[in-house]
Write a structure and sequence with these properties.
By secondary structure, the chain is an alpha/beta fold. Helices cover 40% and strands 25% of the residues. It has helices at residues 3-6, 17-23, 42-55, 69-78, 84-89, 106-121, 135-140, 143-160, 175-184, 236-240; strands spanning 11-12, 26-27, 31-36, 60-64, 92-96, 128-132, 163-168, 187-195, 201-210, 220-226, 230-233.
């Protein structure tokens, strides 16, 4: 580990103070899985982690298969996370993968995963790497190629002492494959859509594991995504009312 990284915090604190208190932070030098269906808040939580990392002086590489770089910056700023200056300085670097419209097959998926893996190890290296989302590649890849890619990420974390966050949709994997992917990771957070007794639609997360985090106050939270604020954790009374 470099001297610069050693001098930085051992935990990445989230932008949402209440969520940070509940989760206990994201441990530095860890591989983490954010799992959930569409619209469960995976990308927003990943972006919350990005802002916390930037505020602590970490460099971030955000690899997205779903947005352009300007769209990502704009979305984060709409949630009160002013990443524009960090993007201009190069502390936040965004790699947008244009995957739609290609003639996909297993060979193409293998090629992309190999290129991404080599890129991360070389020019794309950073203290924190976000991969949002792996789902598109998972649906096109062989189980062996996908597990090799994730094993390479695991080795990268162990060798470089970086922090990696990967978002996935569970429908893209069979049961045995998902179990193996979860086992590779230090952290596993499951995200869902939830309907309150009031019929309001909100999001929830459950921390299934988070090795190395400080002692969390709970292993679950219910939240809303609020413009100009980001993640707002709902109090227990509001959830049960």
């Amino acid at each position: 580990m470099s001297q610069a990284l050693e001098s930085k915090p051992k935990l990445i604190h989230l932008a949402s103070n209440e969520l940070d208190r509940i989760m206990g932070g994201i441990p530095v030098s860890s591989m983490n899985l954010l799992e959930g269906e569409n619209d469960t808040g995976k990308s927003v939580l990943a972006q919350d982690i990005v802002w916390g990392a930037l505020q602590s002086g970490f460099t971030v590489r955000y690899i997205t298969s779903e947005m352009t770089a300007p769209a990502l910056v704009s979305q984060m700023e709409s949630l009160s996370w002013d990443v524009g200056p960090s993007y201009i300085r190069g502390d936040l670097r965004i790699t947008a993968l244009h995957v739609k419209g290609l003639n996909w097959d297993e060979g193409m998926a293998r090629y992309f995963l190999t290129v991404i893996s080599n890129f991360i190890k070389n020019k794309g290296s950073a203290d924190v790497i976000i991969f949002d989302s792996l789902t598109y590649f998972a649906t096109k890849s062989s189980p062996e190629d996908l597990l090799n890619f994730l094993s390479n990420l695991r080795n990268y974390v162990d060798e470089r002492k970086s922090t990696v966050v990967v978002t996935v949709h569970p429908f893209a994997f069979d049961g045995n494959q998902l179990i193996r992917i979860r086992s590779i990771c230090d952290g596993h957070i499951l995200m869902k859509i939830k309907t309150l007794p009031s019929s309001e639609i909100v999001r929830s997360l459950e921390i299934l594991k988070l090795r190395g985090a400080s002692k969390a106050s709970d292993n679950s939270a219910t939240f809303k995504v609020v413009p100009d604020m980001g993640i707002k954790v709902l109090p227990y009374t509001a959830v049960k009312a």
